């Protein structure tokens, strides 16, 4: 399989890239930090004993660069991309985002607007090649209004909405959209935050995402218990949500 | 539960450490579950996260306070997200990794390709950075030396903020001070070392039951002449004749012709679900445990092919086993005694321990080869003894008594296990300390990099 990953330098994306590499899929790593990309590519090569994946610069905060970056990524895989996976995103606490609107703006751009624009570029190319899978990491934070993730959750809610709607539109034409919704995962993104129940390590979350991407499942919760948790939270009456801190 | 918490808070353990169960989060602790308030700053980018950090920490498998911040600080840099393997040469075994990769990752990545870490401690859940900082030793110390013997170079962020490459021919003072330097000379970012080529992934192993400690030590020293891996467990709860009876273990890698056809895979692990009550592990239950453990070795001698995890990492089968000690916390006391009169010295050591009501469920004896290159590296030619001690009001006095015995015998203790040694005792057993501190001062005149342990033992500013 030919796979492009944006966000494999850290966290869940790093774990996912290792799973792909271990089964000898052909990879391209995209990201904003050249040095980090080179180190991650070297890591995948030494772990598998195979060749290093190509590294292509791409900053999610610079949509003007998307077409060229995608040209290079597709080219490195001889024009055929079976799965395009986005784990890149920003996170910050609601308090920080409320205090610093420039930061909030950047998060909304990176996690929602630009991710959608990037997926649109990829969708066109996938339609042209006759199909493929676009898998994007959203979050359970986009599933229900909650106090600590109002702005981040809004970006993820929009993203989930986009992915599920596009999956309805394009699955018949061969382009599948997979929306991955992790719960709390122990990565650099959440380091220092108090751990809620059901906190998970990136490796099992990546493994579950990988299976869903292979199958082309439209929505996957990881770990799976979060589907139930969010179902309950979505049905809590408003007067309860006013009182709860999460 | 609440009453339990507050009573523990009123009784801080010496040296400012408290049972981590009594601290409200965020808190940091060593493996012995004694800690201080504080948190880890985690980032995949080590160069970024170590900038200005007071100390760096790996997987927290050191028992005492060496990976804890000094009292004036609340944050240390954590390396465990920095786990990339940057280069590997399958012809020679040379490897370059980020400091946060664990030995377990290296084992399971490279064992199927015929390589194993050159030296490994009794758990795979340690980082390469931690292995360098403690200059760890393993069952093969008498032939392979410490981890540092296999290191060619280190990339370190030193106190003034520069990133420096060092090795035997570049800044050798920094290099040798960092091997076993407990993180006090700088933040290790990358390590280049040599993996060992192995004929198969399986171990050939012999175990033998031995009735008393003198014979035990003599047999251990004898075995070192012919076996590349040796160690043993001894019973230090039973007094009198049975004191120090034990099980001696010898091993070597299987030749391909002896090994099962498929390489071994990681074994399943269980987790100790909750902390046991403090009284569960006491002198009497320890004695029963020791009796059973000794008796399980029936017949007197066994041999055969063993899974490498069973041989190298038996304790890794049980995650969070520190919970067996309850909430009070524990420490490990590990010392090395010089070769001269080792069998008698070992018996005397155990007598000091048991005469003070000390009992340890886990007592490990290992013969050591010559002292390594690290300026503060722990092992020296002789035998090392390690015992686990739960914390109670007698533990400090017990550690003091053991230290006085070790000073008298010309031995020394292992910093990565220590939480209770007094500075005057450490100075008395460590003539190398002043030259180590001189190198450290040269690279860090204001001692901006320091730990809870260095404040306690070396008198660093708090
Ligand atoms: C069950 C068990 C068995 C063990 N058996 C053995 C054994 O057989 N032989 C042996 O030698 N040891 C043994 N140990 C001890 C263990 O190997 C050491 O404590 C080791 O240093 C732990 O590594 P870590 O990554 O957990 O480091 P930590 O515990 O996090 O840190 C230990 C020290 O290393 C420093 N450090 C860590 N990373 C860095 C870095 N990147 N840069 C600078 N300083 C750093 C810290 O500041 C601290 O001083 C055992 C421990 C356990 C729990
Ligand atoms: N961790 C959780 O608990 C959790 C929960 C729910 C959902 N999620 C979602 O899961 C995904 C992965 O999370 P994670 O925890 O693995 O995150 P992470 O560890 O913070 O990794 C984020 C990745 O995004 C990249 N990135 C950030 N901004 C970028 C930009 N402008 N351009 C290009 N790349 C950029 C980073 O690259 P650099 O190396 O260059 O920084 C990094 O590789 C995210 O979508 C996140 O929202 C995570």
Give me the secondary-structure topology.
The complex is a heterodimer of chains A (246) and B (462).
Chain A: E1 2-6, H1 11-22, E2 26-31, H2 34-48, E3 54-57, H3 66-76, E4 83-86, H4 94-99, H5 101-129, E5 132-137, H6 150-170, E6 175-182, H7 202-215, E7 219-222, H8 225-234, H9 238-243
Parallel strand pairs in A: 1-2, 1-4, 2-3, 4-5, 5-6, 6-7
Helix pairs in contact in A: 1-2, 1-7, 5-6
Chain B: H1 2-10, E1 18-19, E2 27-29, E3 34-37, E4 39-42, H2 46-49, E5 56-57, E6 75-78, E7 85-88, E8 94-98, H3 103-110, E9 115-116, H4 128-133, H5 141-144, E10 151-157, E11 163-166, H6 172-178, E12 187-194, E13 196-197, E14 203-210, H7 213-223, E15 229-234, E16 246-253, E17 270-271, H8 283-296, E18 301-306, H9 308-312, E19 318-319, E20 330-338, H10 342-355, E21 363-368, E22 382-390, H11 395-409, E23 412-413, H12 423-429, H13 433-443, H14 452-458
Parallel strand pairs in B: 4-6, 5-6, 17-19
Antiparallel strand pairs in B: 1-3, 2-3, 7-8, 8-12, 9-13, 10-11, 10-12, 14-16, 14-18, 15-16, 15-21, 20-22, 20-23, 21-22
Helix pairs in contact in B: 7-10, 10-11, 11-12
The complex binds flavin-adenine dinucleotide and NADP nicotinamide-adenine-dinucleotide phosphate (NAP).
NADP nicotinamide-adenine-dinucleotide phosphate binds at residues 7, 9-13, 31-33, 36, 59-61, 87-91, 110, 137, 139, 182, 184-185, 187-190 of chain A.
Question: What are the salient characteristics of this protein?
Answer:
heterodimer; A: alpha/beta; seven-stranded parallel β-sheet; 50% helix; globular; B: 462 residues; alpha+beta; Alpha-Beta Plaits; 14 helices; disordered N terminus; binds flavin-adenine dinucleotide
